[in-house]
Structures are given as structure tokens and as C-alpha cells.
UniProtKB/TrEMBL annotation:
One Gene Ontology biological process: electron transport chain
Top-level taxonomy: Bacteria, Bacillati, Bacillota, Clostridia, Eubacteriales
Source organism, top-level taxon: Bacteria
Residue stretches spanning the membrane: 169-194, 206-223, 262-279, 299-332
Native source species: Desulfitobacterium hafniense (strain DSM 10664 / DCB-2)
Name of the protein in its database record: FMN-binding domain protein
GO MF annotations in UniProt: electron transfer activity; FMN binding
One term under GO cellular component: plasma membrane
Keyword field: Electron transport, Flavoprotein, FMN, Membrane, Phosphoprotein, Transmembrane, Transmembrane helix, Transport
Amino acid sequence: MGTQRAYKVEAAGEKYYAVCDSAVGYQSRIEVMTIVGSAGSVVKAVVTKHGETPIFFERLYTQKLFERFEGLSVREPIYLGGASGYSGDLDNRETDNYIDAITGSTLSSHAVAESVNKSTAYVASQFFNTHWDNPYDRFQFTVKDLAMMMIYLIALAAAYLKKLVRFRLWLLLASFAVMGFYVKRFIAVSNLFSLITLQIPRLTDLGWYVLIIGALGFIVLLGKNMYCAWICPFGAVQEALNKVSGFKSWGISPQTIKRMKLVAPTLLWLAVMLGTFLGDYGTLDYQPFSALFLFKAVWVMWLMLPVFIFISLFISRFYCQFFCPVGFLLTLLNRWRNKGVRACQQIRVQMGNHWKSSKG
């Protein structure tokens, strides 16, 4: 059937159409097989492949997201309720052909719904003589996207306007509130891993591009890791608490600092190796961001979160300095970029001098 992975099946005197399609979720591409009956309604939606963080994806099963598709029509789109700002959002449409997203796992819910819609749109056009525009293909620009852009523009201004340093505490608190609790978006290792493995969402997810491409753009164009310095909500809350508390900073010897700087790359290496061995890169999601801002995390992060917060009262950005894999990777990229620029400048100078000497 066509160029998609689609099958026509007859069982117990009934015809069924099964189509596989996929969409990018939080950190991976989620593939779903959608089975449609001869009456034109969804019989079943089954995930055939995914690499999402288990603790988040398990919610889709426990809260019966997939059962909600059963009985919905292929003759119109299946919208996603409770997904404001995402393509395919139910908004104020008057229809019963929708499911509600799972709170706290909206990105994964959206990817599943998008995958199912791709399949039902195909079945509707091929076998039920029905064509409709897929709402998951529509570009979205929301207030949350605008708020995120404003935070990034403030960070850009801070790179050039040194006077903004005097307002640093307030700007950090703004980032903490906007990025952490309003937009609820922050860079995790899983985001960078999805970029490396080309598990990239479509432009309909504008927020992803602002978040990731914006942070990398600062490094490439400015040679500065502005995300960690001005945007990261977890870094912001640590620094703000340290400044407001007024506690005397704990002294750490240079030798201890040097050793502790090895913790972040070591943990990252172990997470990648374990994920490769298990075939599940949910091992990369060991940062405390989800516990603080989404109120969901593995139990170890619930134990470590108060420890990181407490120590940050005495050591500014304690987690950022010694444990954060995102900070380690962005700083490493920034260092490589600046070394590359300096090397190119030296080559250009040497070539210029050589050209002048040859002319003389």
C-alpha cells in the first residue's frame, strides 16, 4: 500500500488497515502502528519503537493514552487536548475526535498523536475517499515561544551591555520563572543526544529550535556559553540562592576542584555506555531539572535535588560546576570553537606575513 509501511489484513471476516508512522518526542523518534477497522475508526494504536525516558513514557501506558484512540474516526483529524502551544491542539474546536495529553509527558503524547494522525490521514485518503489537512503540520507561534525568545534576547544583550550585570539577580530570577515554570523547557543531555542522532522535530515545534539552536548559536557566533551563564533555570536558582543567602563560601582547594571537574564527564560516559549496553538511552536523563520543574524524576534525583540546592547556598552553582553534563558539553564545544577561531587567525597572520615577505 503506497510508499508507507502499510498493510491490509483480513481476519474473522473483517478488513483492517495497519499503518506505521512516526514523530519525534522528547528525545527520540516514536513509531506507532495504527490499526483501522472497515468502519473507518481506530481499533488499536501500538508503539513499535521508541527511545524515550522510561519514567515519562511509562505514564502513557499507566494512564491509558493508547486506549483513548480506540473508536475515533479517521474521517477527521484526531486532536490533542491539553496541549496549548503544540500543533494539533484541540483549542476551542467543537469535536469529539480528540484525546487528552498526559500531563508531564506532553511531548511524548504529542508525538504519539502526530504519528497516529499521519496514519489515519493516509488510510482516510486511500480507502475512505476522505481528505483533510493534518493540523500537526501547521506552524505554531505561541506566547511561550515569544517568552523564550525574550529570555534569549536578554542573554544576547548581556553579552554586549556590561551594565546589565547590575540587574543579573533579577534577570536570573526571570529566567528561573519563565524557562522553568512557564515554558517548562531546558536543555538536557537527551536533547543534545537527539540532535547528534538526528532525532530532530519538525519546525512546527519552534520552541525546540529556539532552545537548542539558540544555545549553540551563541557558542558558534559569539564564542560564549550564554545558555549556562544567563538562561538555564536550574543554574539561575542556584546562583540566586547563593547570592540571597549571604552565607560564607566554602573554600575548596584547587586540587579538589580539579578532581571534582572529572565527575561530570565520568557520569556522562557511564550513562552513554550503560544506555548502549541496555539499548535504552533513558540512562541519560539523570539531571535534577525534571524533579524541580516537572515534579517527576527517578528516586535518586529526588534524593539528590535537596543536596544540590543546599550546597549551592555555600558554593555558587555547585551542580553546574561539578555534575552537569550539559554544562560540560556546552563548555567543551565553546572551548573547541574558540581554539579553532584562534588557530584560523594564526594561520591567516602567518599567510599574510609570508605573502609580505615574498613580495619584499
